[in-house]
């Protein structure tokens, strides 16, 4: 369905087809879900609810999606896409806002994302913000993320998650809570403000907030006033940042962040980050298993 004017959802709807979605065809418009529930029911390879640009086409500017509630009900999404927004959402487009939205259900597919697909606001730039949004469910397949897929905000783009949170567990490798790997890399920017992850991480190289290589290659990745509450049950599982964040001339910073929970794994899981390149200021850890507290 092409969206050319402001639109408000009048009632709950159920989608049972993989190729039913909204496509922003004009700038300066909003979609208001009116706090109605959109159920994606038993759909394999769902396309993603909203499209605004793709790998070869710029998106529209000044777009707002608000008050949308999605129940993904035993469905999967096309690889690299998000249930709310498809890959390359907001490509080369400024002032894109997703506000007061939620996604509920487990991510069970390879490279699947709750909110945004890979390269959101990436490739030729763009600016996308998620504000006051939440994901409720477990992440059970690799290279997946609750909010932003891999490479979001890369290549000159900028993505921000503000007042966003996840309630759920990560049980597969290379998966993340808020930002997927390489977010904010290659001269891009990825920012998490006042965000948190509540749950356990039981898989290698999985992280609560930022994935590996965030802000790498002259990019920027910032976690400010963010935290994780839960357990790190696997080696190389980290609370706030993954490995190599800010590498290759990039900048990654954890500011006013903390971890509260248990370190159960026999590996090298680190509460804030396993990364000597990370700039850390005013961060701390509370190990509830051993009753220890320390500044990072």
Q: Cα distance, first to last residue? A: 50 Å
Helix content: under 10%
Poorly predicted runs are none
- How much of the sequence lies in strands comes to 25-35%
In order across it, which strands form the biggest sheet? 3-6-9-11-13-15-17-19-21-23-24
The chain-level mean pLDDT equals 94
Total number of strands: 24
Rg, Cα atoms, Å: 18 Å
Annotation field: number of helices? 0
Shape: globular
Biggest sheet character:
11 strands, mixed
Structural class: mainly beta
* Order of secondary-structure elements: EEEEEEEEEEEEEEEEEEEEEEEE
List the helices and strands and how they pair.
Layout: E1 2-3, E2 7-8, E3 13-15, E4 22-24, E5 29-32, E6 37-40, E7 50-51, E8 63-66, E9 69-71, E10 96-99, E11 102-104, E12 127-131, E13 134-136, E14 158-162, E15 165-167, E16 189-193, E17 196-198, E18 220-224, E19 227-232, E20 251-255, E21 258-263, E22 279-281, E23 284-287, E24 292-295
Parallel strand pairs: 1-4, 2-5, 3-6, 4-7, 5-8, 6-9, 8-10, 9-11, 10-12, 11-13, 12-14, 13-15, 14-16, 15-17, 16-18, 17-19, 18-20, 19-21, 20-22, 21-23
Antiparallel strand pairs: 23-24
């Amino acid at each position: 369905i092409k969206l050319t004017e402001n639109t408000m959802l009048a009632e709950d709807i159920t989608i049972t087809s993989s190729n039913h979605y909204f496509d922003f065809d004009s700038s300066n418009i909003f979609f208001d879900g009116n706090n109605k529930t959109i159920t994606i029911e038993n759909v394999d390879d769902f396309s993603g609810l909203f499209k605004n640009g793709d790998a070869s086409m710029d998106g529209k500017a000044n777009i707002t999606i608000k008050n949308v509630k999605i129940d993904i009900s035993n469905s999967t999404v096309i690889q690299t896409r998000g249930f709310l927004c498809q890959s390359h959402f907001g490509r080369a487009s400024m002032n894109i806002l997703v506000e007061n939205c939620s996604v509920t259900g487990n991510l069970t597919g390879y490279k699947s994302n709750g909110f945004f697909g890979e390269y959101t606001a990436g490739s030729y730039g763009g600016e996308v913000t998620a504000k006051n949004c939440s994901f409720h469910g477990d992440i059970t397949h690799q290279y997946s993320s609750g909010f932003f897929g891999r490479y979001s905000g890369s290549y000159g783009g900028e993505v921000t998650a503000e007042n966003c949170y996840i309630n759920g567990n990560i049980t597969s490798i290379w998966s993340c809570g808020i930002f997927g790997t390489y977010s904010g890399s290659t001269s891009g920017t990825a920012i998490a403000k006042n965000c948190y992850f509540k749950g356990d991480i039981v898989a290698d190289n999985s992280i609560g907030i930022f994935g590996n290589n965030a802000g790498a290659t002259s990019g920027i990745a910032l976690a400010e006033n963010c935290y994780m509450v839960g357990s790190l049950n696997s080696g190389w599982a980290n609370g706030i940042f993954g490995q190599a964040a800010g590498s290759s001339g990039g900048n990654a910073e954890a500011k006013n962040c903390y971890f509260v929970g248990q370190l159960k794994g026999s590996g090298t899981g680190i509460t804030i980050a396993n990364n000597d390149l990370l700039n850390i200021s005013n961060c701390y850890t509370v190990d509830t298993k051993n009753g220890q507290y320390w500044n990072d």
